[in-house]
């Protein structure tokens, strides 16, 4: 091959190499970047939402035994810690009068001695019913319509780390205005538990809404468009994504009911850095704190 032919062949080889390199570079340029998404599978499950309230354990009944006139004690028939029945004689006076228990309970705060002379209005003792306890909570006017007498409640007593059952016994007919908001009082009877003490703090939960056997997704997987309409992201062809409109139901603050647009076990994508906190889930049902003290 002549010198001129060799030079021409060399340029052809260089041209082919350059074309290959350019093609690879152009292909890389056109290829979409890897999708920066996490994936989660839709599940079939149950969701329960609650109204939450706070209060303290109280006794359903107590008798504050006081002298209604000046008197002298002749005999004390009980001592502190005694359990008495309704009608039991507690104290006798020098005039032959008997002061009796009006409720069954335990004698506490015995403040008088035999032969003592006391003035009218003096507290003599108390009879407290420790067997039947209750919790009273404040319920704002927007939640009161959702509560009914006889409805079950769950009461968490933090001091003993225990959850016990209760039942709504009564709802006040008159509200109290606090800082411009009207609150009503709900009284919940507690199941008997020897570890529960009067005065303990209690967190009361009453079911607001619940669904069973529905399609669910974690809240992080739900996106919202500029009109605040919910949608999810699904994987399309060749590293593309598809936005699919959905209808949501209730949510408990972490998990959302999906009524349409997603099937069970379907893979849903969500951006790692796109929080949706504060978005409006129009299906509602999130925990609503009730009347706080």
UniProtKB/TrEMBL annotation:
In its keyword annotation, does this UniProt entry include Membrane? yes
Against InterPro entries, the record matches this protein to: Single_hybrid_motif
Sorted alphabetically, the keyword list is:
Membrane, Transmembrane, Transmembrane helix
The protein's superkingdom reads Bacteria
Report whether Transmembrane helix shows up as a keyword of the record. Answer: yes
Entry's Gene Ontology cellular component terms = efflux pump complex
Q: Which GO terms describe its molecular function?
A: efflux transmembrane transporter activity
Report TM segments: 12-30
| Xref: PANTHER family | MULTIDRUG RESISTANCE PROTEIN MDTA, SLR1207 PROTEIN
Name used for this protein in its record = Membrane-fusion protein
Identify the species of origin: Desulfitobacterium dichloroeliminans (strain LMG P-21439 / DCA1)
Source lineage: Bacteria, Bacillati, Bacillota, Clostridia, Eubacteriales
